[in-house]
Automatic annotation (TrEMBL):
It comes from Streptomyces guryensis. Keywords: Isomerase. One of its GO terms (molecular function) is isomerase activity. Residues 2-59 form the 4-oxalocrotonate tautomerase-like domain. The keyword Isomerase applies. The keyword Iron does not apply. This is 4-oxalocrotonate tautomerase family protein.
Length: 60
């Protein structure tokens, strides 16, 4: 059973719903497995807990 973990900043529920569907479909297509065997975990990180290029994302 594939488990896909996605780390990202907060997103709208509808966008996450679409992402989970597309990721699942990609695994079904690539591995020829049932959709029921694919799990997608979304870990959302607040902008004040994520940094890039030496700065918090919240400060950009």
């Amino acid at each position: 059973m594939p488990i896909v973990t996605i780390q990202q900043g907060p997103r709208d529920t509808e966008l996450k719903r679409d992402l989970v569907k597309r990721v699942t479909d990609a695994f079904v297509d690539a591995y020829k497995i049932p959709a029921e065997t694919v799990q997608v975990w979304i870990h959302e990180v607040p902008a004040d807990s994520w940094g890039a290029a030496g700065k918090l994302i919240a400060d950009k």
